[in-house]
Amino acid sequence: MPKNHVYSEKFTSILNNLFHGVMLINHKGIVIEFNKSSLVLLGISSKKLENKKLSDVLPKEYRRAFEKYFKNCFDIETRNYGKYEVVLKRKKEIKILEIDCNQNFYSEEDHELYTIGLINDVTKRKKLEKELERQTKTKDLIIEKLEREQELNDMKSRFISIASHEFRTPLAGILSSVDLIERYLKNDDQLWQKFIHQTKVDSHVVKIKTSIKTLTATLNQFLSLGQLEEGKIEYQEEVFDLKEMLENHIEEFSTLTKENQIIHYKHKCKKRIVCLDRNILRHVMNNLLSNAVKYTPKNKNVYITSNIQKNNISITVKDEGMGIPIEDQKNLFRRFFRAKNVTNLQGTGLGLNIVKKYVELMNGTISFKSKENIGTTFTLSFTIDKLNEHNTNLNILLKD
């Protein structure tokens, strides 16, 4: 894969913050790119891994078996989607690594097959498994810990698999738009005001921003979920104009709408000032609006309403999309869950799970009503009983 390939350029910078090892490997087993955790887990320097076969940096007793495993990962007839375990001995430390090379994809740029290699340190899990065998009295507790850790590992593995595909489309849009912009800007800067392609350049700048937002949103969903579960996101209230905030956010989404698709917004009262976490609410609305636009076909609309009554703030997002099948509605907020009627559309299945956690973090509630082939309405509700505790002048603001 060429060094100037956008995926190659972005790969390390995006994934360096993960504590799991992530590598881009070609079909010959040669490591093209890798993050810092890969080096830490394998206990080697970057020079020993870059452009080397992964099998060559493993202990000798594992190399031949790993080569066979890696080959099977690319063979549709023989692959078993399993993982490969390696025991590393470094001084007095014994480390058990689990390697997964089943996240394959085809690059349209150079027509080559690649895989995303994942390395997890499962030493603690293995120790817990042995402990489970010895201590039957604490069996339930240990199983719970194992399942929780396994669920987290599977979530991260599935994210990398999904993200490796989700990144390709927006990055392709970035590449094509940048190329066009460079072509248009070859003229003298002084001629820019008379430049006949001004409108086109502006259009492609918008496309770049949209693609970047799509890419960032996919990554941020995974990172947000991890931060929420680890309790790293704090609820920080501030006073702001709800109507203005929603209008600005909806305006940003106007570039993402389909043909003859309009986002209608109405604020149903004179009160506009609220005290919530603006950043978290923005994340919530971003997910709900993205889904509404994505699942609503062209020539159909999306309706947003907001209202402030007594001690309650409510926001609704209504679409005219495909709706949610009745049998799927009970699982709608589960991680990675996707309704059976949207499997042909891109998505991670994390958005609504994150939305629910964000809303609960703000002491709010989220509910929905949906009918298949008619549409879905999500309703957010937040109490404002404690507003006076945060700003003594807020009563005056709320009366404006």
UniProtKB/TrEMBL annotation:
<dbReference type="InterPro" id="IPR000014">
    <property type="entry name" value="PAS"/>
</dbReference>
<dbReference type="Pfam" id="PF02518">
    <property type="entry name" value="HATPase_c"/>
</dbReference>
<dbReference type="InterPro" id="IPR036097">
    <property type="entry name" value="HisK_dim/P_sf"/>
</dbReference>
<dbReference type="InterPro" id="IPR036890">
    <property type="entry name" value="HATPase_C_sf"/>
</dbReference>
<dbReference type="InterPro" id="IPR005467">
    <property type="entry name" value="His_kinase_dom"/>
</dbReference>
<feature type="domain" description="Histidine kinase">
    <location>
        <begin position="162"/>
        <end position="386"/>
    </location>
</feature>
<dbReference type="InterPro" id="IPR013767">
    <property type="entry name" value="PAS_fold"/>
</dbReference>
<dbReference type="InterPro" id="IPR003594">
    <property type="entry name" value="HATPase_dom"/>
</dbReference>
<dbReference type="InterPro" id="IPR035965">
    <property type="entry name" value="PAS-like_dom_sf"/>
</dbReference>
<keyword id="KW-0808">Transferase</keyword>
<dbReference type="InterPro" id="IPR050736">
    <property type="entry name" value="Sensor_HK_Regulatory"/>
</dbReference>
<keyword id="KW-0902">Two-component regulatory system</keyword>
<dbReference type="GO" id="GO:0004673">
    <property type="term" value="F:protein histidine kinase activity"/>
</dbReference>
<dbReference type="Pfam" id="PF00512">
    <property type="entry name" value="HisKA"/>
</dbReference>
<dbReference type="InterPro" id="IPR003661">
    <property type="entry name" value="HisK_dim/P_dom"/>
</dbReference>
<dbReference type="InterPro" id="IPR004358">
    <property type="entry name" value="Sig_transdc_His_kin-like_C"/>
</dbReference>
<protein>
    <recommendedName>
        <fullName>histidine kinase</fullName>
        <ecNumber>2.7.13.3</ecNumber>
    </recommendedName>
</protein>
<keyword id="KW-0418">Kinase</keyword>
<feature type="domain" description="PAS">
    <location>
        <begin position="7"/>
        <end position="77"/>
    </location>
</feature>
<keyword id="KW-0597">Phosphoprotein</keyword>
<dbReference type="Pfam" id="PF00989">
    <property type="entry name" value="PAS"/>
</dbReference>
